[in-house]
Recover the amino acids of this structure.
């Protein structure tokens, strides 16, 4: 029994020794620490974020309930409260990095936007395979702040948006615009601000990424890097 308890304690201690000192877990250090690994630049962080946008396909849309509710039987005390809901996106406009979303008119996120809410899309990196990283808090995640804009019929055709989106989400073929079940339309989240948490603050950048950095990332840059836990080339899944 003592042996088992001692082992558990040792395991806990060795795990804890791999964590940065507490003050750097959720922020970058202010002074230059000699023992510190190099923190990626803002641009390198933007490249990581754009690669995550390309390889992931599910995120959380956060919107705010309006002050008045008409159609739906909704508790009135949720007015002004944010709600985050899972949704699909696709990296279908890679020249801008504006994610493509299939907006279902009756879904809460899009109703809130129609009622005047702002919106963010939050996503995080899931390393491939079933390996749970030592600390999921060490992995990159970020939020895209912006507004929804409907795609023109020309954009949809020219950029093969339906093909791109269904490649990410085969099941979504059932609710593409024009389907018989739900009214839906193609929108882009026009990215205006990016809040990035690259991981623990002693080895990753934590902070805002200017939208110019986000937009300036090239396909070659995205293809050239690997995210934590990525082994081989996964471009184009
Ligand atoms: C949405 O964000 C803008 C800033 O981009 C702000 O001026 C506006 O008040 C926000 N709208 C709501 C409904 O919170």
């Amino acid at each position: 029994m003592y042996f088992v308890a001692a082992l558990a304690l040792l395991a806990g201690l060795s795990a804890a020794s791999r964590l940065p000192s507490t003050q750097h877990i959720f922020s970058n250090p202010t002074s230059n620490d000699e023992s510190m690994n190099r923190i990626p630049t803002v641009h390198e962080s933007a490249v990581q974020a754009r690669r995550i946008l390309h390889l992931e396909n599910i995120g959380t849309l956060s919107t705010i309930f309006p002050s008045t509710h008409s159609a739906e039987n909704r508790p009135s005390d949720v007015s002004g409260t944010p709600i985050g809901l899972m949704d699909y996106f696709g990296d279908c406009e890679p020249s801008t990095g504006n994610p493509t979303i299939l907006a279902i008119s009756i879904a809460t996120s899009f109703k809130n936007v129609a009622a005047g809410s702002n919106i963010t899309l939050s996503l995080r990196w899931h390393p491939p395979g079933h390996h749970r990283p030592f600390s999921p808090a060490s992995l990159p995640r970020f939020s895209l702040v912006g507004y929804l804009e409907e795609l023109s019929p020309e954009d949809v055709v020219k950029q093969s948006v339906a093909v791109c989106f269904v490649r990410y989400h085969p099941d979504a073929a059932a609710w593409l615009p024009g389907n018989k079940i739900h009214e839906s339309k193609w929108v882009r989240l026009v990215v205006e601000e990016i809040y990035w948490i690259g991981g623990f603050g002693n080895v990753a950048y934590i902070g805002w990424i200017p939208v110019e950095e986000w937009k300036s990332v090239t396909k070659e840059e995205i293809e050239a890097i690997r995210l934590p836990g990525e082994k081989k080339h996964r471009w184009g899944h």
Notes: Residues 42 and 209 are 6 Å apart (CA to CA). Residues 116-118 surround 2-acetamido-2-deoxy-beta-D-glucopyranose (CB under 6 Å).
